[in-house]
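Progress against Task 2.4 (sequence-to-structure conversion) is shown through the following example record, which the project officer requested during the mid-term review.
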Amino acid sequence: MTMGDDVKVPLRGMLIDGQLVGASDGGVLDAENPTTEKVIGRLPDATADDVGRAVAAARRVSGEWSGTPWTKRAALLRQFADVLDANRDELAELDARDAGLPIASMRADVTSAANEIRYFAGIAGETKGETIPSGPDQVTYTEFVPYPVVARIVPFNHPIKFISGKAAAALAAGAPVIAKPGEQTSLSALRLAELVKDLFPAGVFNIITGSGAKAGAALSAHPDVPRVAFTGSVPTGSRIMEAGSAAIKHVSLELGGKNPMVVFPDADAEKAAVASVAAMNFARSMGQSCGSTSRVFVHRDIKDRFVAALVKRLSELKVGDPMQDDTDMGPVAFRGHYEKVVRYVQSGIDEGATLAYGGKRPEGLDTGYFIQPTAFTGVTMDMTIAQEEIFGPVVSVLDWDDYDELLDQVNHPELGLTGNIWTRDISQALRMARHIDSGYISINGTGKRPTGAPFGGFRQSGIGKESSVDELLSYGRQKSVTITL
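Structure tokens generated for the chain above:
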């Protein structure tokens, strides 16, 4: 398989109420391969009526699903994970073609999603109540009541991993799900719809596709959807919260980040530089990750050694055909995003930063939305590339030597998703971890999270936690009952 091997993907249906269907008005969107810039398929462009049908189906089955013993729900989720494992190569190939993501990474994404589903299957029994001391003549207890419908809206950067894995907690909790993938990378979601159509009772797991402005907006604002979980950009998250305010919806948001990595002078500069490339997710998703550490604050004493090692590591990354197993970086996901990243690179140059590596289209790749892994040095906090989330393969290196000044810069702008600290001094590391106003901190690592660790941002990076028992319990409400004897 090569870049020129553009396999056409047949038009597939959305999964609504256990049936594979097209949009009610026949509307479709094109699916473009970002490597070849050719249309490789089409997907239904759901309407508000389609959203309404999915919501009605989910509400109709909600009592049956919430009343299903948690052990049976867990068993079905394990079968769901088995389906992913059994179709790993096909689903990974769809994402490599549709999103430009390296196929080796996409195989890992499928496996990661299956593991996340099994994790939530394993803790489904935590949806339990408790008894509360209330005197000799009363008994008080609580019970967990799942939401009747959950909307799970996910972005374009990890298509199959998010459309499957991020539905698991709600399904385990006993809440039917309507999942919507990013409109630019929906082909694997539609194939998943075919694979699991008969796994769950009709209406328990629904997948709709289409534009965010139409299908996504209709889903998040629907009056019969009391629980919305969104992963994506800050502006879209803000609109979803605004849409949900009138109905007092329970909204959780996992949003963007302008995440800092702080390198102290006692750190191994070369190891930290290699870790910074991994933490930026250059090789996994071309920097298209909310958790990427796109601002690296390096102490001036070791900056030169750090930058030299950073440039060396970036030069070793292979940029090219995402269908090849040895490719580290493919193209970014779609034309509009490519043009946005290019504008950010130009703004860095125009505002006086030094382009230490990359910043251009790779030689020999004249077609496709390819951008070299890019590093800027001499970056200051008044520059656009230090202020705004690029969501692409661009990292900025900033100098520091004053701790208090560093803290002001680390916690600006108003985003607080992740942080990374490199030092041999554990006291220094823990002190810095407390000072970084972000939801997830990695010390001497690359940002990889162990199973079950709560993930979510502070400030404008979001509300709520994911990938943990906290997320499971967020898909239901606590009801208290007091019995007088």
